[in-house]
Amino acid sequence: MTKSGQTEKLLNKNKWSFDDRWIPLVLLFLSVLAFVPLIRSVGFYWDDWPMLWFEITQGPQGFTQAFTSDRPFLGYLYQITGALIGTDPLNWQIVTVLFRWLVSCAFWWCLRLLWPKEKDKTFWIAALLAVYPGFKQMPIAYVWGNAFIMLFSYVVSYGLMLKAIASAENGNRKAYRLWTIAGVITYAFCTVCTEYYTGLDVVRGIIIWIFLLQYTEFSDRKVSKKIRKTIWYWLPYLTVLILFMFWRIFIFQFHNYQPVLLSRFAANPIQTTGELFARVIEDAYTATWGAWTEYFSFPTRANLQTVSDKMFWIAVVVGFLFIFAALTFFRKKSVQNKSDISDATEKKNWIRNAIILGSAAVVFPGIPYLVTSLSPSLDFPRDRWLTAYMFGSCVFLVGLIDSFIRDGIKQKIIVSLFIAMAVGGNLLNTNTYRRDWEAQQDFINQLTTRIPDLDTPAYFLTDFNPLTYETDNSLTGLFNLALEPENSSLTLPVSVGFYDVRFNSSADKFAAGEPIYQGFRSALYQGETKDIVVYFYSPPGCLRILDPEQHMNLPIFPDKFYEFIPYSHPENILPEGTRSTFLQDEIFKKPVTKNWCYYFQEADLARQYSQWEKIAEIGDQVLNRYQAGEASEYIPFIEAYAQLNRWGDTVPLIEKVHSMNKELDKPLCPILQKLFIEHYPQDQTEREEVASALYRIGCSAYSQ
């Protein structure tokens, strides 16, 4: 016996050792460590907001209609979970972590059935799966809470299938039928709801083949008979898949993603085949080595400066110590009277089967994405497709480790390092969602302050989005909940559009006065050019509602904005109204923060209606307490003080704007010249100070 083997034998006798009954708790601890520390600091993102809008305004039953265009059966799942879980983001975060953990437990159960003699390796694979770092959308909880329920059902179908096959091979046909019925139901539940995992169904045949190899009767058969028997056990699931694909392709057809691969093959089959092969390799690499090494680094003084860096390394250290101890003290039941030859043969077979299965499970899941010319990535939003690849990635990684590293302790160290880095990476990733959640809250606080009431329909147009995990479709749900939460009509009062996405960076439709339509699943926005309100938001600067008269000459916006600023109608925003605090009260659960941008929004609203006294009152209250994030935010206060002939308060602000951004001197000059003439300072000393301030920014006091 090798030194490593002697060490493992001693550890198996250690009083601290544990058996596989405790593995679900180990997986739970890893899940908690990777996903729970920041769980109270994250909320809703991306497609969560449309889903939340439907639940709040239409009730859970509204999901049935919402999903009619792409996944009609999925609406029923959302209807059930929406009614049970509600709208609290914390509840959805808990559900998502819970079912992510259950997926890892279910996969471990399947692997135990598939490789009953490889209990340690199946434990390693399940532990890797629990923290797989390639998929980064865990905090998008409303969407992925439901998605992991479906994925759990899908993985359970593998285990039920293996139980059925084992019953049949042992002569229990009644049990086979019962297990098969249960397996087909759980498989069909996931498959009819989403096509994400249809590529994995090819892997199902490989799993059946590997499972049957443990039966001598199957192993001794000819290849042709093995294939027939594999297909026989596969047939109930293939039947469901074929029926679903027939319905999906020929009856329901493609509504969102088109099968562009077919047309490319028809146009150039040789080139398309080469590109397809390269894509398969690239996607498999992304799902395996790319995913596992993205966060792989070693600490230096430079990357221990921030709180998030320290948090990352604390999680890595805790994760490594915990999982290495768990892998070390895991006790396998010894197998008696087993020769070294049979042990080596079984090990060789296990490695071969693991690499074959792992390879297949990082190639075939890409079929739905290849057909529609989509490709998974480690970046948002395409990382969501890696959920279909993560099972193969974990199996393949353990197969490689067992193939190239012989020493058991070294194997555990390597596996523990991958798991620990993934734990830290997941925590670091969640921290980016935490920051985005805070940015969303600040944005909505400013939006509801700037817009106390609104003439609807209103179309909010922009071409810059600092929110990492929100599209214009996401923001449409968010804006409606912020500004019109009581609207229950499927005709949307408010919509958000990104100029480059919705109008192909062309204002021709606005100039022609064409109507604006924007779909929102079963809801629809209908408006006209006169309903457009252009906004710009780039922290630390405040949200800006753009007015052609005020902002066309300010050189602070991206170039594209000047194409559509002329079509902005801020007059659609009313000066008074009952501000909705629905999101702050029910979703964010935080009151509006009264910071500089809060007061700026109040001043900017007052500027829209020339309420100079109100602006000056706000300025008196806040200018000595806060610093603007962007120099032009002082301009409304400059105008107000000048309009009220308070030049002594105006001059310091002119100099502050000049010192912060000299590019504002030119557009500010004509404004100041006009105000200087209209509100001529009567005091000579004050007049000279104003003239001097104007000259310092290159502006003549008496020219227009």
Task: Summarize the structure in words.
The protein is mainly alpha-helical. Helix content is 62%, strand content 5%. The protein contains 31 helices and nine strands. The strands form three sheets. The chain has a four-stranded mixed sheet with strand order 4-2-7-8. Strand 5 (516-520) and strand 6 (523-527) form a beta hairpin. The protein starts with a helix and ends in an 8-residue tail after the last helix. Residues 334-338 have low confidence and may be disordered.
Low-confidence runs: 334-338
Number of strands: 9
Arithmetic mean of pLDDT: 91
Rg on CA atoms, Å: 31 Å
Q: Order the strands across the largest sheet as they lie in space.
A: 4-2-7-8
The percentage helix is: 55-70%
Short summary:
This protein has 704 residues and is mainly alpha-helical. The chain has helices spanning 3-12, 23-35, 48-58, 62-66, 74-85, 89-114, 119-130, 141-169, 173-193, 201-212, 216-219, 223-251, 260-267, 269-293, 307-329, 340-360, 367-371, 390-404, 408-450, 472-483, 499-502, 508-511, 548-551, 561-564, 582-588, 596-608, 612-622, 635-643, 647-660, 665-678, 684-696; strands at residues 453-454, 458-462, 491-492, 494-498, 516-520, 523-527, 532-536, 544-545, 573-574.
